[in-house]
């Protein structure tokens, strides 16, 4: 597939783009900084500038495409990850503006260019727990995609607005638009560097609902979304199968979620941020666990 990918130079994108290239896709990365990886085409553009996004959405990806002599090739899909990645980087109103306007521009330009598959990055923060002022507990566990999304911060607000924007575009056009509520992205080198701290102090993972997503498994999730057509508008939790701390489900419930309703029985290492919908509808099967890279006894 010929794919335009926004934000491919970011923490998540710099792993997802190579994964997609490894699957045989052609990727044009649109970002404020290029991604230095073999086979990646880059275009420097600002997603908040509608004119720039409309231009790159209908342009050559590289000089080699000129040789075909057939004009500009159509895009098969757009994957939109570009954003200010959390609060406390830029002013709150700027975070909201960039993330909401950028998403509107990307989806609008994609659909007007004839693209029928758009995948966009939403966030675990939409559930209101990650950036809460003080402690906010889930309304129930495990958290599925039906859990209320009532965030209190500008970043998570922007993601909830983006989901509404995407749903409206899908209703108007009938295209496939899938939103990924991505949990805390972990790069391969971070296991040895930071996970021993989580073994010693599981409190550090409370705001992430004790969950995580390996960056390579996020690549698989995007690839599965590209392969499965006809779902219309859907949102999916994206997380690995297990908790990010060396505690059992019962231990974590006893310490953190004693009064939180449990909707079903859970496995003793099963994530509270359930990926069941992605498994059932997309065939997503995470391949990486932190336990493959860190000895719990090292904590």
Automatic annotation (TrEMBL):
Residues 3-238 form the NAD-dependent epimerase/dehydratase domain. Signal peptide: none annotated. Pfam families: Epimerase. It comes from the Bacteria. Gene3D superfamilies: NAD(P)-binding Rossmann-like Domain. InterPro entries: Epimerase_deHydtase, NAD(P)-bd_dom_sf. This is Nucleoside-diphosphate-sugar epimerase.
